[in-house]
Amino acid sequence: MNSNQSSTIPASILIVDDTPDNVRLLSTILTAQGYQVRKALNGQRAIATVQEFPPNLILLDVMMPDMNGYEVCAELKASPKTSSIPVIFLSALDDVLDKVKAFDVGAVDYITKPFQNKEVLARVANQLTIQSQQKLLQEQTQQLEELVRRLQNEIKERQGVELALRLSQQKSDHLLRNILPSAIVENLKKGDGAAAERFESATVLFADIVGFTSLAARISALEVVKFLNQIFSKFDQLTEKHDVEKIKTSGDAYMVAGGVPVPRADHAEAIANMALDMQKVIADFKTDTGESFQMRIGINTGPVVAGVIGTKKFIYDLWGDTVNVASRMESQGLPGYIQVTSAIYELLKDRYVFEERGAIAVKGKGDMIAYWLKAKKDDSAVATYSCHTKSTPSELREDPEARLL
Questions:
Q1: Would you say 328 and 207 are in contact if contact means Cβ atoms under 8 Å apart?
Q2: Tens digits of per-residue pLDDT, 151-161?
Q3: Residues 121, 123, 124, 125, CA torsion sign
């Protein structure tokens, strides 16, 4: 390292040596390079000086009366105020054990006397450069944390009413993770962004509460929101139980996906379990007239594109034919039933109970064989599965477009 580099880093250096000639020589060398120099002729004075005027670097002699360099260094490292100040030992002791002891008490370097001027300057410059880089890294880390805090605040402000309703008591970081998947949040914090990416295999679920439109016409808007919040909060708990990703809600519809943004081999099974549990949960809720709610649920599996697009009001979403077909499975299903594609059936037929519905006309796809997912094969409740419909055949012919998200 060129000794002239030291002048580019303004620094204060404390020289601690009980030999005045050594102190003067070192002071002359360092001052000529533009460093500010302080001096101490013994350990006690050195400690007092460091406490009053903390330097950027300390050059410390080992052999001093009353309090040797090892003791001075150990005391400095024991204090939070001075522990981060780098210490370079200068000593005539050349034994390996002496050097090891110096590093054990916290030294960053060791120069053997008689020293060479260029060596001292090079080692001093090296430690100051390291210290400068560490400070720069700390500043950059603080800037990144501030950017994350600003992002959290911006999202909180722009999601106002919805976030206040669901997450008003949550801290800002928890708030952010309830808006976006954890993996996407981590990417945003690192500055990696959250561009859309393709997943070769994922499972998508759409669910719609039957009869909720007529209920909303009979009760106030506030009661509607309160009621939906109670139901969807239960569904949110199920997403955590089955480790699947809630994508979004739209009115009384709920969308969930498995296998995104973190791929997993059992995403179809996880979504199937989620759907069965949703049917159980919705049965616990009653309308204002005392009737039980029912849901239409549709599931499909296949490749999807998922991610966050745009620069404001971030929403994690899914796109692709797999998503469209899953939506059709829901909209063309029946109240109280979980309608799935043949792709789901082939994946899960050995572990779940299905009933073939037969071919249904799906817009853009033609006739597709659909199945009803009934229960898990090892579920003792298979025989008592109660989510049946009283629908008339005419309901099978209703316009499927009316309930698409």
A1: no
A2: 888 877 776 65
A3: positive
